[in-house]
Amino acid sequence: SYEENTRQRRNVKLPAKLNDYFVYEANVTTLDSVSFEDIETLPKEEQILWRKAMNEEMESLNKNEVWKLVELPKDEKPMTCKWVLRIKRNNVYKARLVARGFEQKPDIDYCETYAPVISMSSLRLVLAIIIQKNLEIYALDVKTAFLNGDLQETIYMEQPMGYNHNSGRVCKLLKSLYGLKQAPRQWFKRFTDFIIHLNFQQLNCEACIFVRRSKQSEIFIVLD
């Protein structure tokens, strides 16, 4: 009857996907940023903090032997670089030297650029296995990760602003640098080679997951 049909319709519920939800987003990575040219206009205390941050970045670059200074060969044009200066949470001053990768020429300065990224479904599956087996979870951050990738191509770059000393020489890159198109791929290759050397197996279905099993333990490494 009409009343029964009406009563049934009243009991119909909307699917969960049509419910109203609140979304919270926390942007805590970066609070502020400045350019290298602006540093001299800042108060003396801030200038000191930025200089310290850039010195720390240069120490990392030198420690990883990212480049060597050479005379620029004839008919070669060096690519440029820039300082990315940001104030992060807890008022941490962070400086990163970035190559201007948009100046790179395909098949000359780079070839392959693809680096795999783990899918959310694979990550959920690993977490489910960890919970089911009551395994422990550790999170690690590789500082200046991209600087560990080896570079096959021959790339010349101008010296960083503030650290040139008018030597007339340029940087011949030996390792990957943030901003290079092949940097993610080279870091992934270096990481993979190292982990496999430690007897981990890379999953065929998910390149970012590595497993090592023994009678006493089971270890998963997830590269995110």
Automatic annotation (TrEMBL):
Gene, per the UniProt record: POLX_1556
InterPro entries per record: DNA/RNA_pol_sf, RVT_2
Lineage start: Eukaryota, Metazoa, Ecdysozoa, Arthropoda, Chelicerata
Species assigned in the record: Araneus ventricosus
Name this protein carries in UniProt: Retrovirus-related Pol polyprotein from transposon TNT 1-94
Domain Reverse transcriptase Ty1/copia-type residue range list: 64-222
Pfam families found in the cross-reference section: RVT_2 (PF07727)
One GO biological process term: DNA biosynthetic process
